[in-house]
Fold each of these.
Amino acid sequence: MRKLTSTPKQDGFRMPGEFEPHRGTYIIWPERPDNWRNGAKPAQKVFTQVANTIGKYEPVTVIVSDGQYQNARHMLNDYVRVVEMSSDDSWVRDCGATFVVNDQGELRGIDWSFNAWGGLVDGLYFPWDKDDRIASKMCELEGANRYRLDDFVLEGGSIHVDGEGTLMVTEECLLSAGRNPQLTKEEIEKVLCEYLNVEKVLWIKEGIYNDETNGHVDNMCNFVRPGVVALAWTDDENDPQYKRSHEAYEYLSNEVDAKGRKLEIHKILTPTPVLITKAESEGVDAVDGTLPRQVGDRLAASYVNYYTGNGFVAVPVFGDPHDELAIKQLQELYPDRVIEPIYAREILLGGGNIHCITQQVPETRK
Ligand code: KQY
């Protein structure tokens, strides 16, 4: 497939909202023992559950190394496609392609530079070159030409669009020293508008407390549909999340989207703080250059890190008293979709959640 030198905006391509119809979704199989405890066995069970659940509604492709191919093929349902591909870890939202479509039903991919959430400044592992090649390989599988940005670092979890000209990001992430420190905020915004074909960028200040991605927006806030957002929330003034959520609410309440609409904001309470246990910490291999998992560390737990697919929403739950409320609220926000709660502590222990381990390919039919 071809590498393009123009931009999606120049060519009339846009990134659809995640709530628009999908051709399918990608997931990468977890295996590295310095991120996933107990040789990634507990994580593999949950990734299997996520893939099998999503596969009931839309085609799923699981990317897996040769070493894990037979195990993954055995664990996953037959309706899940399993393909061998090299990766450094399993966060396809971040290293995978961002797909864009045009009105003629054509699909293209954006292949951002990936540097493991901060490169040599504050990245989470080294090296990351296999991950950086994932987007290009996904484009090959999908038959999509691709826009490659050699000089612009971005992860898919740091953006959310409404498909109608509005993008949401956090300053904490996009202006962090490990991403594009050579560019000003205005220059970053220009690249985003050109490649995602949007006119309005909503800059939320910060994401979820202690999020090792430097506060990805996908853990904090999501478009339910154009003009409507779900925001991670706490009423506990003693929680460091309080200020973050309240500032975001204040900011979004005073903004309009690309179409000039005021935003309808729905507050989704975060679970009670989730801390790493001794057993969980001890199960992770210590390797220089990989973020350690220490007992008592607070994880960036949020229900907003859900995946919206064809006719369903896959929601992480934590065995927390707030689970039920989050499920109820999301069912009200998505009356036409089945809510699929998945106990996702094992994904959270690796540093993200269901949205971070999935990447949708939009439907291209006209
Ligand atoms: O998007 C994400 N939340 C990915 C987190 C990566 C964690 C790597 N240990």
Note: DSSP finds twelve helices and 17 strands in the chain.
Amino acid sequence: MKQSLLFVKTAKDAPKDEQSFNAQILMRAGFIDKLGAGIYTFLPFGLRVLNKINNIVREEINKVGGQEILMPALNPKEVWEKTNRWATFDALFRLKGNDEKEYALGATHEEIVTPLAKKFILSYKDLPFAIYQIQTKFRNEKRAKAGLLRGREFVMKDLYSFHISQEDLDNYYETVKQAYYKIYERLGLSDITYLTYASGGAFSKYSHEFQTVTEMGEDSIYVCDKCKVAVNKEIIAEQSTCPVCGAKDLIEKRAIEVGNIFKLGTKFSNAFEITYQDQNGDMKEIVMGCYGFGPSRVMGTIAEIFHDDKGLLWPEAIAPFKIHLLSLNQNEEAEKVYQTLTAKGIEVLYDDRDLPAGQKFFDADLIGCPYRLVIGKSFVNSQKLELKKRGLNAKEELLTLAEILLKF
Ligand code: ATP
Ligand code: MG
């Protein structure tokens, strides 16, 4: 992508009406724009990052048999009444259609997915299966002051699984847990993300959250560093030792919930009367699980964690571009380099703007692509470009284009 053609520009100062660090830096760097509290537009760079996060999640959930669908965000009131959540789900956006019918904007989709599954389940032969979507959710969050960490409109991956027995659910739940570990590993968050024991509802002692440690986090967790697990403060009364090794010396940390997995049991299958016929012809209850993940919250979390005083430091797997190519008055040569790299399938942001070098360096640090490639005077003298990894104090390497091609 050529920066001269981009309609978005970076900004020197943080917008005054935004308090959260993640939204401030993402707005300054041109990744998102704010429409209102908890409501953001994803601009070209931001959408590239979000799509990369979504694709990592998609790949790992597909591997554990998830079948992707897309459910409506506009939900008739009746389905939410079936579970009594029309009245009890605090953050539900409720609205009237012009036919006097009432609707909710989807805040989560158990009420949609359960009657959907019912249409296709007759007998044990139709089970198990798991379906998911990556979709915009709406919640009338009271405090929407944490940028992408708490949107009123945000992106969620929600997976739901349907089973003939608790045992089958338990097995699948473990499989999904492993898939989540893989996702956080690919996102570069493994080291600071803890499987966290939280309260579980009627069907299991615990649910599990994935909590990423950051000062900006709204939750408090108690960490056992030896076992890499934690307990949510909300249940610490019940579980004050490490649930794995029993250690008592847990350390309190601030964290943000970036995903959670939950055994729903028969709560929703009973509400929607969904059953299956077993091998003996008897009608049995279906057991469900649900597995949430917040791609837009993860993007905000990564901005909170991976930055320095100059700007963002994207992990390679989700960076908007791999290389930021800066031309310092060498546009003709740089154009060739840009064409060569992109032809090789490398994602390059090419700063071909008619601006002083200082401005280009400033923006490159702010935007935070993993590699900066400068084509300036040394190219005229020695055919060499300057390659520098973002965030390292290491000196630039002087390399020919051929050498660079070997590296990527
Ligand atoms: P929280 O306690 O932080 O409000 P939650 O328990 O309401 O989260 P779920 O309803 O289980 O979360 O949603 C699944 C995932 O969606 C969460 O793990 C989180 O990553 C993401 N998520 C939830 N609410 C928001 C929000 N307001 N903005 C951005 N992401 C969110
Ligand atoms: Mg919530």
Note: The chain has twelve helices and 23 strands.
